[in-house]
Specification:
Blueprint (H helix, E strand, L loop, with lengths): L5 E3 L2 E3 L3 E3 L8 H9 L4 E3 L3 E2 H12 L6 H12 L4 H13 L4 E7 L5 H11 L3 E6 L10 H18 L4 E5 L6 H10 L4 E4 L6 E4 L4 E4 L9 H11 L6 E5 L5 H10 L3 E4 L1 H6 L2 H16 L26 H7 L4
Parallel strand pairs: 3-4, 3-13, 4-6, 5-6, 6-7, 7-8, 8-9, 9-12, 12-13
Antiparallel strand pairs: 1-2, 10-11
Helix pairs in contact: 2-3, 5-6, 6-7, 8-9, 9-11
Amino acid sequence: MIDLTTKYMGLELKNPLILAACGLGASLERLQRAAGAGIGAVVLKSLFEEQLRAEIAGISSELDNNPEAEAFLQGLGLSDGAAWYFDLIASAKEKLEVPLIASLNGTSGAWWPDYAKKIELAGADALEINIGHIPNSMEESSESIEKGIVDTVKAVCSAVKIPVAVKIGQNFSNIPALAGRIGKAGASALVLFNRYYRMDIDLDTMSLKPGPSRSNPENYHDSLRWISLLDGRTDMDLAASGGVYDGQTAIKLIAAGASTVQLCSTVYSGGFAAITSVLDDMEHWMTSRKVENFSQLRGHLSRRNSEHPELYGRLHYIKALVGIE
């Protein structure tokens, strides 16, 4: 009998597949369909800092920047502006039998503790904070950027009792060092990696246009590398995100050290049946290899369990390039 159960941030999951933060998690009906297809947990569509700022700014412009009105509107943004989100959490918590993870996405972090508290009160089992800062100033140092991330994590974790996962991008000079700081700030899990908005140029109109919004099946390699390097070096659970389209890819990421694997683009492409397909694929592989549960597999191919840790650095890179002209 194959046992797919796992633990993530102290939560009991019937399997390691999680619906990633996306539009598929924006309604109770879609969340129920994901649960019916077999998902182990769901992350709701993110509540974006910019959404609430825009609401407040729109009303503020009509009030001549009155300080008292500004203060009132900030409170409004923390309640009425996000009321739909708190209602979604409450209704989903009542109807779903899988763990429910809320999501905050922003840059400044100034309001996040307040939102985190309200999310906790609404009934979320956990919170994922997606810190999507894209630096564009030549004066902003890498140290100040990382300090801002760590400070935000610390503030959110101090504000709530539910576990907090942190989702980051991969454009940092030293991901293991940042991961260590995030763990010390109180995070229970690290999600690798955030997929930033991609831009393109329309040559017909000579204007900007959105780039591809979905991952492809080759995008899991970066998560695979860094999870394999981080496994055993942090107390945080590691979650893989990006490029998971089949069960074998999910198995690879778990073998590298991931506790859970997030699905998004494959569900957009194949519908909620894609979740069932990935699960069936995982069970088939485990049955064929006589692997009964993930404790036999998790981290088996991470760097710390390898007899040749040098392969996780530049050696494979050099081998791949030698002889190529």
